[in-house]
Amino acid sequence: MMNIITSLNNKGYGIKKTENNQELIKKIKQELLVSPKVFSNAAFSVEKEYPIYLENDNKLYVPKCYGIEKFGFPLDDKLSFGVDCPLLEFNGKLRDVQQEPINAFIDNVNKKKKLGGIISVPCGFGKTIMAIYVACYFKKKTLFISHKDFLNEQFINSIKMFVPEARIGKIKQNKVDVENKDIVIATLQSLAIRDYDPAIFNEFGLVIIDECHHIASEVFSRAFRKMNIRITLGLSATLNRKDGLRKVFEWYLGKSVYKIKNNCEDCDMIVNLHKYYVHDLDYSYVKMMYNGTPNIVSMVNNICNFKPRTQFIINLLKEVLKKEPERKILILSERKNQLKDLEEFIKNDEIASYGYYVGGMKMSDLDISATKQIILATYQMSSEGLNIPTLNTVILASPIGDIQQSVGRILREKKNERKYVPLCIDIYDDFSVFKFKGNKRIKYYKSNGYKINNYIDYDLIEERDEDEERDPNVKCQFIDDDE
Known about the structure:
Layout: E1 6-9, E2 12-16, H1 22-31, E3 33-34, E4 37-40, E5 43-46, E6 50-51, E7 54-55, E8 59-62, H2 64-71, E9 76-77, H3 96-110, E10 116-120, H4 127-138, E11 142-146, H5 149-162, E12 168-172, E13 175-177, E14 183-187, H6 188-193, E15 206-209, H7 218-221, E16 231-236, H8 246-253, E17 256-258, E18 270-276, H9 281-284, H10 296-305, H11 307-323, E19 329-333, H12 336-348, E20 354-357, H13 363-369, E21 374-378, H14 379-383, E22 393-396, H15 404-408, E23 423-429, H16 433-447, E24 451-456, E25 459-464
Helix pairs in contact: 2-8, 3-4, 11-12
């Protein structure tokens, strides 16, 4: 077997170049030259390649966890252990179900010497408090990274609650406040685009990346080619990446260390599935691209702009509030203009108080919106960081396929504390590619054993309890992208 000389330092996992391993080096570089797969309007294409490595004349530097997984723990370990932070004392208590993933992560770092991993748990499981506990366990200077300012603000508020003595710093744009800090909050964009003094990262012993699936992109992955921190913890409710680059963030952070056991007692939900179709060119015209594939973007625009369909959604909303007037409702769309149209109906008909949860809003404005009975939100904002435990109803106003995180937003209340059973109102657009998206959602509902009530427009055609199709040993299932 070839003798490979490996090392670990702030540049990454190093593999010494020799005359005998030139073919191996070439093979590794080929593997770490990645390109995202892009599906645009049902057409498949491959974007330009980009490297996930660094090199000089003497060494090839690869992502830390890739190197450890492939070649074992390095022979020469010079990577900083980070500054000790005794003020990191956890002032809280974890639930037993939260402790299990944390124990798996700690075991992966300490006993297995993997130095990292990903904790992937459903929305509402408490990723933030778990991350703070991990920081307090290792008591090392910690870097927390996310791609959204409001996620960083949420994390800061949680630190103040659970680690009141912690000294909090910040890295954002030109601001570098890291000296004598225990936890430093950084934006992923700044780390990727700007060149900070590499020495500032040597003091960190732990890095936590929220919504870690984002770091696989060409731009965001640059951040991790500029720094290498000893212990890496990735957080995400989903490991899905449609471009096939899940492997990239696993190379940097490590693989998922814990698969959630499907024993969630609070995850029962009613789904009202409304099949909707109108023979109107403004709504259901199947537009095609030059290559003969459906123009999905344009068709979604038509769906969201079709006023009779918007009125249909408003009528369903009114009916829900007529029967159960205190429900707290999340309305989701891919298009802000559809949310604006819905707002007009809600305002003119004086249905209930409402607020927005969309990109670009200040944290203070998001907090105000969270107090309203109806929240108009984009799927993107709801999938990352929307934390309103009192939500119990979601309306899927525009057609999507992947709904795990959207549905998770209404499953946060404990069963013995809630007033209403969680309710999902699903508008199934019964034509073209949207049938596929709708069937994908139905598959997800069935896999979780949710009760599905089938409607054609307003008319109930079948009340269906999925108990027969549900594994009696499974209380709640979370679909991973490998399945």
